[in-house]
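Supplementary material to the annual report.
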Amino acid sequence: NTEIPVNFIQNIITEDLKAAKNNSRVHTRFPPEPNGYLHIGHAKSICLNFGLANANGGLCNLRMDDTNPSKEEEEFVESIKTDVKWLGYDWEDRMYFASDYFEKLYQYAVQLIQAGKAYVCDLSAEQMREYRGTLTEPGKNSPYRDRSVEENLDLFNRMRAGEFASGTKVLRAKIDMTSGNLNMRDPVIYRIMFAHHHRTGDAWCIYPMYDFAHPLSDAIENITHSICTLEFADHRPLYDWLVENVDYSDMADGRPHQYEFARLNLSYTVMSKRKLKLLVEENHVTGWDDPRMPTISGLRRRGYTPESIRDFCERIGVAKASSLVDKALLEHCIREDLNARATRAMAVVKPLKLVLENYPEDQVEFLPIENNPEQEGSGMRNVPFSREIYIEQDDFMEDPPNKFFRLAPGKEVRLKGAYIIKCEEVIKDENGNITELRCTYDPETRSGLPGSARKVKGVLHWVSVLHGIQAEVRLYEDLFTKEQPDMEEEGSDFRANINPDSLAIIQSCIVEPILATATKDDRFQFMRQGYFCIDSVDSKPHQLVFNRIVSLKDSYVK
Ligand code: ATP
Ligand code: MG
Ligand code: MG
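Predicted assembly:
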């Protein structure tokens, strides 16, 4: 997709290109920290960064922002690559790891020390907080601020060599302890951490802080537009200070600039990796890819298509103020996509048997039914029909109210693509539960015959008892009962808002035979029920499991 997007960052890029800034290059990056699986919020950032690059003849890098050794894992790196690709974006040969820059970043820190712009500080974390001041009160200079360049170089070198215990020393940028921006009050740029890193192993015991590593990684990669979420707006002066005060001779043309946009918040879900991780670790869900999760892997398993997620990201737009997006919009996007392309099929979730008394015992007919009335050329398929049929329990009422247009004693309905039938008798067990309906069919009314013109109000889906296949269906509801589960109340956290009824498993479902050959890439509309797909993890050829992607009813209000 190379259409020019409409958003304020595109406007900035358009101006920059006009002014031939950065030698008219557009180079963005998507920089996830590999400490969890990507979620739909990340999809917004992916679509924005790759989308802007694609639309402006630019490039977008995939960068693992892996400077924090204790939380990162290989599994997450792999899942991130899978998810970005699945969404339809390609970083080509530009996949980078911030950890690959550790040596370079170290040298940049040395440069700052040599220029008298960084110093080793021995204050404890608590002292440092005290010295830092507050929004209304200026900070105080650290007593270590005036160490000589030689002493700082020696100490920093020895920090790297592992001579000091963690927490005993840090490297700080020497900026301004009276700045109105707390981030500029001599921020820590390196800390001691004896931690194993997923890629560099035990080579390092000092690690750069995010605020130091991020702008300089952007500079190393020749990024032009570094797009991040609003919380980093206050960090921008530090970003600028670093890219201006470090001399990176490898910079081709121009320097990176940071721009902030509002992160995506979605109703009835949480969107932080930390919280999603808790849901997984505490078994509130079956994994990162649980179909109820707002992760990309969860949405994929649920049956969402990359097209629907990209469409969603386009519709929500890119703003400078935070807002809460209605989850119904996401559901609207997948419904629109699937309405256009999902094969219509029949599945009876809660079956009730019905016998057509006047239909020949051993006769089977194959009745043509449209695969998708919304899609030209999608053709017809033949669905087997016989004397015994399942319909939905909910489609029959013994004592119906006035406007019940489904089946009732003495009433007629049409079976989709088949005949008009009439209910003659209700069979019950000794407890009074309905076990079977005895009906008759009108042979003149088969779809396509002249007699089919006769009007009846209700049309029911059905499956032939002889040909139907048993399947499990999983019906999902929101994972949380509150629109903003994050809005924590006294004494409880977001977990108090978990919906205990977010999953219903129904094993009694009977589906038409074509569904036996469904693959994980197929999407179906189970007529009158919703959109479904095979569960890519649990479904087996002889033990089919279907996920309900979304119901048919659209609650999105434009
Ligand atoms: P989380 O709090 O979920 O861990 P994060 O920002 O710490 O999110 P990163 O892995 O650092 O996660 O994010 C990678 C990129 O994705 C960043 O550029 C970040 O701005 C962006 N991003 C993360 N969450 C959202 C969101 N909800 N909406 C839009 N962009 C997001
Ligand atoms: Mg982050
Ligand atoms: Mg985070």
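The CA atoms of residues 39 and 295 lie 4 Å apart.
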